[in-house]
C-alpha cells in the first residue's frame, strides 16, 4: 500500500504542480490539479470499494417527524465562536427539527466506533475534520435525520423535497474551486437504512481501520464518488437522488461577507437555498454593518 501512496503523491506533485504549466490561467490550473488529485487519490481509495459487497440492504425507516438535525463542535458548545453560535440560532429559528449539538466527549454516548478508530483520533492519526466526517455518517447510520455543519446558517426550513428523500447530498460543480471533490458533506439527509449511507460508511470505516493518514482532505467525498460510479447498487440509488448543484448554498458568505448589508439583496441571494455555508476562519476583522456583522450579531437574536 505504501507504494501506491508513493506513486499517488509523486503524480500529484509532478502533473498537478510541476507540469501544470504556469501560463494557464488560475482557474484552469486549479481544475487540472483537482483532476490529478482525484485520479491519483482514487487509485489508492478504490481498494476500499470492496467493503460495499458486505453491506446488506435494510428496510428504510420513515420516521421523519421524529428526526433530528445533528452537528458537532468538538471543543464544546460553550466554546464555539460567535459565528457558530449564530448559525445554531438560525437553525433553531427556521427548522422544525430539533438541533442536537455534540462534542468530543458527548459523541461517545451516541455512536459506537471500533476502538482502533478512537485510538487513531486520540493519537492524531485521524484529524479533527476527518473524525467529524466519520461521526456524521455514524450518527445518521444509527439514527437517521439530517447532518448540518456548525457553520451552516439556515434562512428557511429544510424543504420537503429534501426531507422526502431517503438520501440526499448536494453535488459540486466540476468547474468550481474544489470541483474534484464531487459532493459536499456539510449537509447530508439520510433516513435510517438508506443504502447509500450504509455503503459509504462501510468504505470509510474500512479505510480508517487500515490507514493512518488521509490521502486527501476530500478523501471521504472521493470515496463516495468511487462508490456511486462503480458499485451497481449505489449507482441505482444515486441515479434516483436529485442531482442539485451546491453553488446556491455557497452564494453569500465569501462574496458578500464584509460588504454593507442590504436586506433585499440578502433575501434574493438566500432564496436559492435554505442554508448558506459560512466559515469562522475569516471572522477576525468583521466590518460593522456588513453581512457578516448582521448575521452574527443581529439576526435571530430575540
Question: Can you give a write-up of this model?
Answer:
44% of the residues lie in helices and 9% in strands. By secondary structure, the chain is an alpha/beta fold. The chain has one domain (1-302). The strands form two sheets. Strands 2-1-3-6-5 form a five-stranded mixed β-sheet, with helices on both faces. Strands 4-7 form a two-stranded antiparallel ribbon. Helix 3 (82-94) links the parallel strand 1 (68-72) and strand 2. It is globular, with a radius of gyration of 20 Å. 37% of the residues are buried.
Q: Show unreliable segments.
A: none
Number of helices: 12
Kindly report the average pLDDT value: 90
Query: Main beta sheet: strand number and arrangement?
Result: 5 strands, mixed
The proportion of strand residues reads 5-15%
Structural class based on helices, strands and sheet pairing: alpha/beta
What is the N-to-C order of secondary-structure elements (H for helix, E for strand)? HHEHEHHEEHEEHHHHHEH
Number of strands: 7
SSE order and pairing:
Layout: H1 2-18, H2 26-45, E1 68-72, H3 82-94, E2 98-102, H4 115-122, H5 128-143, E3 145-148, E4 152-154, H6 160-163, E5 167-168, E6 187-190, H7 195-210, H8 219-230, H9 232-240, H10 253-256, H11 263-270, E7 275-277, H12 291-297
Short overview:
The protein has twelve helices and seven strands.
